[in-house]
Amino acid sequence: MPENSAAPLAASPPPAPPAQVLFCPVCHEPTEARFYFCPNCGASLRAKPLSISIGAQIWIYAFSIILPIIAFIMISRWPGVKYIQSSDAKVRQVGFIAAALLAISTIVTFWLAIVWIQGVVQQSLNGIGNLGGLGGY
């Protein structure tokens, strides 16, 4: 019985599927689905995923805390909305924490403003009651 001296051929890995080809909506050049920006014109092709790194979380939480102090001037820049609207549960959690910090800091800011205004009004009333220290009380 003759022996088969040839070793079995190793199966080659299946070829990688070709990258999905999309076209830029601005310059109509072909791009790949994994691109965030068109390599030809730089147009945004899709939104970048939101970061939940420690640095990103510290930044969004700090911004949420100081936002009421700057009187909501930058509300359109607050990234919490994008985080809350994300489909990723971890990213949404970061957004909800930022929203809670924003609510708490808003309440604290309003409370401090009311206390300060009451102090100023009381001091003014005391000054009027004493007639500037000329009263005989």
What does this structure look like?
This protein has 137 residues and is mainly alpha-helical. It has 2 domains: 18-48, no CATH class; 54-130. Helix content is 43%, strand content 4%. It is built from 3 helices and 2 strands; from the N terminus they run ββααα. The chain has helices at residues 54-66, 80-84, 89-129, and strands spanning 21-23, 30-32. Strands 1-2 form a two-stranded antiparallel sheet. Helix 1 packs parallel to helix 3 (89-129). The termini are far apart.
Give a brief rundown of this model.
This protein has 3 helices and 2 strands. It has 137 residues and is mainly α. A two-stranded antiparallel sheet has the order 1-2.
Defining key terms:
single chain; 137 residues; mainly alpha; 2 domains; two-stranded antiparallel ribbon; 3 helices; 4% strand; elongated
What topology does this entry show?
Elements: E1 21-23, E2 30-32, H1 54-66, H2 80-84, H3 89-129
Antiparallel strand pairs: 1-2
H/E order of the elements? EEHHH
- Mean pLDDT across every amino acid position: 78
Q: Count up the domains.
A: 2
Order of strands, main sheet, comes to 1-2
Strand content: under 5%
Number of helices: 3
The end-to-end span amounts to 129 Å
Describe the largest sheet. Answer: 2 strands, antiparallel
Please tell me how large the radius of gyration is.
31 Å
Helix/strand-derived category reads mainly alpha
Low-confidence stretches: none
The percent range for helix content is 40-55%
Shape call? elongated
Count of extended strands: 2
